[in-house]
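Journal club prep, shared notes

We agreed each person brings one worked example of a sequence with its structure written out as tokens. Mine is Pilus assembly protein CpaF. I'm keeping it raw so we can talk through how to read the token line rather than staring at a rendered picture. Sequence first:
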Amino acid sequence: MTGRPEEFAARVRQRMADTTTPVTPAAIVSAVRAEPSAAVLGDTAVLRIADRVHDDLVGAGPLAPLLADPEVTDVLVNGLRVWVDRGAGLHQVAVPLGTVDDVRRLAQRLTAAAGRRLDDGSPCADARLPDGTRLHAVLPPVATDGPYLSLRTFRHRPFTLDELVQQGTVPQPVAPVLAGVVAARLAYLVTGGTGSGKTTLLNTMLGLVPTTERIVLVEDAAELHPVHPHVVGLQARTANVEGAGVIGLSELVRQALRMRPDRLVVGECRGAEVVDLLAALNTGHDGGAGTLHANTPADVPARLEALGLLGGLPRAALHAQVIAALQVLVQVRRGPDGRLLESICLLLAGGPDRLVTVVPAWVRGQGVGPAGPGLANLLRDRGVPVPPLLRAPRPGTTGRP
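Then the structure, token by token:
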């Protein structure tokens, strides 16, 4: 092979661009072998170059190896600099992106593959790639030093509860409590900050739902893939170039209620759809779930109030709906030591106005909290055995998990 591998791959890309042949793996291999200097290449080298050209033409190009790394959760591109997160924070890595124009073309190609538009007239795009990777892209001049790309990858196989225990995300004594919440069909929200592992934990908990039940997922972008034999998903749709065709989460929640859900799940509550979710959970749909951005459990009532106002639900009515519809909060956080289950709380009515209060049932490093007996009673009343952790005496008399 004459020249550097990059030059060889560039010639193959140009050969593909000069033909009308569909970009398939077989066509790319043929284009590689058509190069005069390819005669000295073995099969392994041909396939390696073909994979690279395929990534450059229809894939993630130089970012493909990072997205294929199972330890990578986030890939961030700031102009010509690349940062990755392998679960322990962001680190800059050396990736040959080429020029700023090359990065722009990469962003536009990835966005187009997801059926979205990215150009000077629409310089921001949020899309889901065919492999499930979530992409957000911003072009200059909106991106002052861009283009900027933010890619979040997802495991093709969700973690099991035992795997989360082995990784230290969930303490071993607490795992039966999470399983009990699912078995008792308690409605719960997984809360936490951005990138704290809300979707990961929700995926795991949905995998504990009995196989005789039907799970209906409603999401803005399809990210949940629980290991369960009966899962159907609904995904929101953005407007087309004419500004028409929007289908939002609120509409999807109403459609989901007609699909005979045993468990109704909203992947992320971020707007007026929270009103429809609460209404649905108040009509006999036990065991529903969702995620919500909140830095601490104490922030959840105010966060729900803000979202309820977007849906036209007054404060008092919102709190009454929450008390009737939701029972449990599962808080996760992300720190230097990874993603961790921080606490399990109950949502209770407090004070003369019966506003929602968040009371800890278990807190990492502190053990069983004031709502521990209340959670044990909820499980017992629904015929679920109380886990040993909740049968133990309150903190101060025993060790703390």
